């Protein structure tokens, strides 16, 4: 039987920064996700996998070189993605939403008529924009963090988070607690591209999910661990599957699935949990760092489950149920 040929493009390690310095923390995180995805796909006999790989990352994936397209500083990464997309049956991009990078890659795959193994560009256009996400959630009466556009915001006492419409995680986000700090930070920002949200104390969690045509499957809930450095949050680690009982999240998952029927494949949902409510913070229409611990935590090959969505419902039969800690900021990243 003919194998499905899949091109995997993890943007950070795959050449997205081939003409500049690699951001160390993002490269570590990207490599974690790439390795986990490749490990899952390698266990599926019906597929053959090819990757784009930044020339500086070759030593990190020596076993993968036979099926790698090396992207050096002389190449145009986007043009290479377009060229390579035409050679394969399916494309699995992992990329930031910032700068419409992920949306553009999805659009390219769709134009090429290839199987896209993530949410379509139409879903990324909404989920990748925090303001549009906020509007969609409010429209469907889903509890979310109150959000204002920075251009419309007048500072009042309290703690506030300033973040870009399309930033990834805590990238380019700032915590401000007084008017002077607010004025200093916002002086050089394009106010039309930033949001303001109240800084809500609570547990920062996330959901690892699968979606298809208005339906959702909840894999596990994760606890996110942050450091606050110079008024900016930094993700330090994640406890994947931190609780064995995820029943409290199922209604929320179903509500998000109905509110955003465009979502498809693996999706991460970031939450803030207070003593009396669970608030949706953002929706990530791509692999997230929590993906790295899923197999060890649940005994589920998530890559296989995503491919199962092409034909029907995903086959999800967990063989274990344990928490797994993933280090994000350290020199070593372990699932242990």
Provide a descriptive summary of the structure in words:
InterPro entries: ATP-grasp, ATP-grasp_PylC-type, MfnD, MfnD_preATP-grasp. This is ATP-grasp fold domain-containing protein, DUF201-type. Keywords: ATP-binding, Nucleotide-binding. This protein has 336 residues and is of the alpha/beta class. The protein has 3 domains: 4-117, Rossmann fold (3-Layer(aba) Sandwich), CATH 3.40.50.11770; 148-198, no CATH class; 201-327, ATP-grasp fold, B domain (D-amino Acid Aminotransferase, Chain A, domain 1, 2-Layer Sandwich), CATH 3.30.470.20. It is 26% helix and 28% strand. It has 9 helices and 15 strands. It has helices spanning 24-42, 77-85, 101-111, 121-127, 130-139, 179-186, 250-259, 294-298, 302-308; strands spanning 4-10, 47-54, 68-71, 90-94, 115-116, 148-149, 160-164, 174-176, 194-198, 203-212, 215-229, 232-240, 265-273, 278-284, 324-327. Strands 14-13-10-11-12-15 form a 6-stranded antiparallel β-sheet. Strands 3-2-1-4-5 form a 5-stranded parallel β-sheet, sandwiched between helices. A hairpin with a 2-residue loop joins β11 and β12. The longest helix has 19 residues, at 24-42. The chain is globular. It starts with a strand and ends in a 9-residue tail after the last strand.
């Amino acid at each position: 039987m003919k194998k499905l040929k899949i091109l995997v493009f993890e943007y950070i390690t795959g050449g997205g920064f081939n003409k500049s310095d690699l951001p160390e923390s993002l490269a570590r995180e990207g490599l974690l996700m790439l390795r986990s995805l490749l490990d899952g796909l390698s266990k599926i006999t019906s597929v053959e996998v090819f990757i784009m790989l930044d020339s500086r990352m070759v030593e990190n994936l020596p076993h993968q070189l036979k099926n790698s397209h090396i992207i050096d500083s002389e190449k145009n990464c986007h043009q290479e993605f377009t060229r390579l997309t035409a050679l394969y049956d399916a494309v699995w991009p992992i990329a930031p939403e910032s700068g419409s990078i992920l949306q553009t890659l999805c659009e390219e795959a769709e134009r090429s008529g290839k199987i896209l193994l993530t949410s379509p560009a139409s879903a990324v256009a909404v989920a990748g924009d925090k303001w549009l996400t906020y509007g969609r959630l409010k429209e469907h009466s889903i509890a979310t963090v109150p959000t204002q556009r920075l251009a419309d915001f007048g500072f009042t006492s309290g703690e506030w988070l300033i973040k870009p419409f399309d930033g990834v995680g805590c990238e380019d986000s700032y915590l401000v607690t007084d008017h002077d700090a607010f004025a200093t930070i916002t002086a050089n920002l394009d106010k039309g591209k930033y949001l303001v949200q109240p800084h809500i104390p609570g547990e920062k969690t996330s959901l690892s999910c699968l979606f298809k045509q208005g339906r959702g499957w909840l894999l596990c809930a994760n606890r996110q661990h942050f450091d606050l450095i110079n008024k900016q949050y930094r993700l330090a680690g994640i406890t994947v599957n931190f609780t064995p009982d995820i029943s409290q999240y199922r209604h929320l998952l179903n509500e998000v699935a109905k509110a955003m029927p465009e979502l498809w494949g693996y999706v991460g949902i970031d939450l803030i949990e207070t003593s009396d409510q669970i608030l949706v913070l953002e929706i990530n229409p791509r692999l997230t760092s929590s993906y790295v611990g899923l197999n060890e935590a649940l005994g589920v090959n998530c890559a296989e489950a995503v491919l199962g969505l092409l034909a029907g419902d995903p086959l999800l039969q967990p063989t274990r149920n344990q928490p797994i800690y993933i280090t994000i900021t350290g020199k070593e990243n372990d699932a242990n």
